[in-house]
């Protein structure tokens, strides 16, 4: 998933291990996109790759124009934000007890 986000020019990508602090998921992947079109493209690219490689479909929430798309794959939840929404919600701060496994700027 991270590779796809990098290929599609996702920004400030973070892989956060949260399995020791919640049963919600094992990992969060958080990234930003600069426009609504980019958020949509990032979401579609991740969904297409996961569907092809693992046969999984995400439970999707949010729309590009909302500034936040959440794709839930069970043990991995992908958060794709506009920079403004990411700054507002500050998920990295909220889940700071988790372990940052990767940070691609």
Description:
- The structure is a single chain.
- The protein has 105 residues and is α+β, with helices and mostly antiparallel strands.
- The protein has one domain: 2-Layer Sandwich (Beta Polymerase, domain 2), CATH 3.30.460.
- It has a six-stranded mixed beta sheet with strand order 3-4-5-2-1-6.
- A hairpin with a 6-residue loop joins strand 3 and strand 4.
- The protein is globular, with a radius of gyration of 13 Å.
Task: State the end-to-end CA separation.
Answer: 16 Å
Biggest β-sheet strands, sense, barrel: 6 strands, mixed
Beta-strand percent range: 25-35%
Q: Report helical residue fraction.
A: 25-40%
Supply database-style keywords.
105 residues, Beta Polymerase, domain 2, six-stranded mixed beta sheet, 34% helix
A few lines on this structure:
Helix content is 34%, strand content 31%.
Task: Give the topology, please.
Elements: H1 2-7, E1 11-17, E2 27-32, H2 36-54, E3 59-61, E4 68-72, E5 76-81, H3 83-89, H4 91-94, E6 99-104
